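Go through the following before class.
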Amino acid sequence: IPPMQLRRMGKSMRMAVYASQKTIQKAGNPKIDAVITGTGEGCLRDSEKFVEAMWDNDGAMLNPTPFIQSTHNMAAATVALALGCKGYNMTYTNNANSFESAVLDAILYLNENPEHQILIGGLDEISEKTMEFWNSAGYVNLENPKIPIDINSKSTGEVNAEGAGFFLASANKPENYLGVISAVETKFEVQNTEEFIQNFLEKNRIQIEEIDAVILGYNGDSRYDGIYETVSKGIFKDKPQMIYKNIFGEFDTATALAIETGFKVLEHQKIPEILKLNNLERDAYQNILVYNQRRGNNHSLIFLSKE
């Protein structure tokens, strides 16, 4: 990234450009036909800079750069400009279902354009003022915000983080593909979690026996982790179970890193000790189910398979 451009970029833009470049390099530098991203919060720091400058200067003598870079689609636009991609470019902002919305759009796009290759990304950044607002609302754990998170501490509030995860997607399987996203579903409110999961499996003709492991979005907030505990001790009690937010922290598009985690397990056929929720193991991992929710809403299911 040219230094002068890097200096002007916000945190999420830097993360997006770096992660997308690494993704493309690992994939063998193919031509990119479209860029689709999801972000729950967008470019928070630039938004705060602009609002604070308006307040301090009574709306006069404002630097336009933070305003230009405060829009949620700025990261996707920056990635496309860096790649010279003039094709389809879309950003989804749907709270904790933002990345899942991007994946669903990518599936629709590839059904219509099976010869294309697209970048899918999820990214979010944190900022000082927003953290203060969230703390006032009781959302975050600022008393003991350490990584790895102890999910058994029974504390309240999330340990917030930031990050970016990007993937190259195509309708066909290249030689170096990581895995397949076979099915995705989101729902804002869920009354019965097990019923939600069973309906998803039936709709996509997936047998519960086919699932080799599950990834659950425990984040250490005791007010909502009970939702995961219900399925952990219920429908998934005989499955190897993983967590990931204990090391990545919580943010709206953390499921991008859950998919990365799932693909790594499919690649290496082993679950790292720090990610184990229980001690069950399988001889081989072919199919992994990711289940996520945040603050009791925005539930999502993503089914990953090796073939």
